[in-house]
Specification:
Elements (H helix, E strand, L loop, with lengths): L1 E3 L8 E9 L3 H9 L7 E4 L8 H4 L5 E2 L25 E2 L4 H4 L14 H11 L12 H7 L1 H6 L8 E8 L5 H9 L6 E5 L2 E7 L6 E7 L5 E11 L4 H8 L23 E9 L7 H4 L15 E7 L1 H7 L4 E9 L5 H14 L5 H12 L1 H13 L4 E9 L8 E8 L5 E6 L4 H20 L8 E3 L46 E3 L14 H19 L1
Helix pairs in contact: 1-7, 1-15, 4-15, 11-12, 11-13
Length: 534
């Protein structure tokens, strides 16, 4: 059943076998997997069914580094979480992502790639994907148009990485009906925000969860097991839970909040490939959403340095896409206009909105040109390179608690997002390998050239660098409690019944979008919880 916790008088206590904090992709996936079992599940969501500006204000955070994240606009506190915002691209992590890589500090998972295979298969239908896998030759047969425009490459340098395109499945809309019947063993509680975990005297077992509402009411939840599935809020909640452990739960080795990572994402350089008019349908991460030429292609191809070249060059995992864009679209004015319209549509009146307005006024001509060309001048299209790659884990990149309170009176999050010279090397070497692979082709002389911008350690990031909103790390998985927050079962070190799901457990990010990987890990955790609670 689905209830609004604001309807209960303050001071209510709720009991469950399993309490899941956060009804996004991970939380809903675990709850669905428990349906029909003799396990009483309570799924707690901070928001309701729709966007609410007052609830969204709980997302506000401060930035402590030069690279700033907009954590207000690109998170969604509502039933379904950020599946209401995501782009729909899906791919499993690569085998190299799970392996210890001597050239990537703090790399290596306590889980094997092959162990995850059945969970990616179980996750795939949740995203309304077909039965096909991620082998590019399989897609050549399935998409004859792709074979016509497929780029010949030097496969000793670069390989093709396939992403499948979900119809942007919104988990709240798609699966809410399954959780609604009163007879189900799952109860969804909306509009209640977890503000702290309480433990026994030894701080070894979670005994309760404190919940507050924006209407001023407080409640408690007790459960045999608790799963934090609230994305970047997972680390914040552990840090807030400091009545028994002054540094926060799971933080005896100062690991909570550290190793924060994003997928670095930018447009830099141009592709000069004769006859490239249809390339974007398959090589552009946003090509399927192009308003001037809509397409139903269900796959996307990125150009990825081979594992052998990654090791030889000492770089992280990287992929390049070939984007179709229009003159003026990559300017500060046009991007500010896009962001401004988004924020106004969602009633987000923050400093980010004021900054966008100032950028639009300062570059209004470019904004007008980009808008005109996008709608009316398809013949002005150009092809640019979109770089998408992982950061190496860095313990100094972190989130912590700040001094400013949020609307519930709790300390806001402060994000200190840092990059390294090795990240810049990944970009520099990755784009060079892709350029060489396209230029050499498959031995026939190549099909085109890339015009690259200077990149590498010591050089600044381009102005087009932006967040992917793939927040990873901060409660990373490691069997060594000095290097991570959760063990191979996603259980918080030192606590018997507290678990974490979501992107915060990823110890490395690879170059796959996170959502399907988050769900696969959540389904793996669900299997463990079913055995534990049986």
């Amino acid at each position: 059943m689905i209830l609004d916790i604001r309807q209960f008088p303050t001071g209510q206590h709720f009991d469950a076998d399993l309490c899941i904090v956060g009804a996004g992709a991970a939380g809903i996936s675990i709850a669905r997997d428990m349906l029909g079992l003799p396990i009483k599940v309570l799924l707690l969501e901070s928001g309701g069914f729709d966007f609410d500006a007052e609830v969204a204000a709980l997302n506000e955070a401060d930035n402590a580094a030069d690279l700033k994240l907009d954590l207000e606009s690109f998170r969604a506190r509502l039933f379904g979480g950020t599946t209401s915002l995501w782009g729909g691209n899906c791919a499993p992590l690569d085998p190299i992502d799970f392996a210890p890589r001597p050239w990537v500090p703090f790399s290596g998972w306590p889980i094997k790639h092959e162990e995850m295979l059945p969970y990616w298969q179980r996750a795939q239908p949740l995203f309304e994907l077909g039965d096909r896998g991620y082998d590019v030759d399989e897609w050549v047969l399935a998409e004859p148009d792709f074979e016509v425009v497929r780029l010949p490459l030097d496969t000793g340098l670069v390989r093709e990485k396939v992403y499948q395109r979900s119809p942007r499945t919104q988990f709240g809309h798609r699966y809410g009906g399954e959780l609604e019947p009163d007879s189900a063993n799952v109860t969804v509680m909306l509009n209640g925000t977890a503000v702290g975990l309480r433990t026994d005297d030894s701080a070894g077992t979670v005994t309760g969860l404190e919940v507050r509402t924006l209407t001023g009411r407080s409640h408690t939840i007790s459960a045999r097991a608790v799963v934090l599935a609230a994305g970047i809020e997972n680390a914040r909640l552990l840090l807030l839970s400091n009545d028994r452990e002054p540094a926060g739960l799971g933080n005896r080795h100062d690991a909570v909040g550290r190793y924060f990572m994003e997928h670095l994402n930018m447009v830099s350089g141009r592709a000069m490939i004769p006859g490239a008019d249809d390339l974007y349908r398959f090589y552009d991460a946003e090509g399927w959403a192009d308003r001037t030429s809509p397409t139903a292609v269900r796959m996307l191809v990125g150009l990825q340095p081979t594992p052998e070249m990654q090791e030889a060059a000492g770089i992280g995992n990287y992929v390049a896409f070939i984007n179709r864009t229009f003159e003026g679209e990559q300017t500060a004015g046009y991007q500010a206009l896009r962001h401004l319209l988004y924020r106004l549509r969602h009633a987000q009146l923050s400093d980010h909105l004021r900054n966008d307005l100032a950028a639009l006024v300062g570059d209004f001509g470019s904004a007008l040109k980009g808008s005109w060309n996008r709608v009316f001048a398809a013949d002005t299209s150009i092809y640019e390179i979109q770089h998408f790659f992982e950061q190496v884990p860095n313990p100094d990149s972190r989130i912590r608690l700040g001094d400013r309170p949020d609307p519930l009176g709790m300390p806001r999050m402060v994000v200190d997002w840092r990059t390294t010279d090795q990240d810049k090397r990944t970009w520099a070497v990755g784009q060079d390998l892709v350029a060489r692979a396209i230029g050499a082709g498959d031995g026939t002389g190549g099909t085109g050239r890339l015009q690259l911008e200077p990149a590498g350690p010591g050089l600044p990031w381009p102005d087009t660098i932006h967040q992917s909103s793939h927040y990873m790390g901060t409660t990373r998985i490691s069997d060594d409690p000095r290097l991570g927050v959760v063990d191979h079962d996603c259980r918080v070190h030192g606590l018997s019944n507290l678990f974490v799901a979501g992107g915060s457990v990823l110890p490395t990010g690879g170059c796959a979008m996170v959502t399907i990987n988050i769900v696969a890990l959540a389904l793996r955790l669900a299997d463990h919880l079913k055995r534990l609670l049986a």
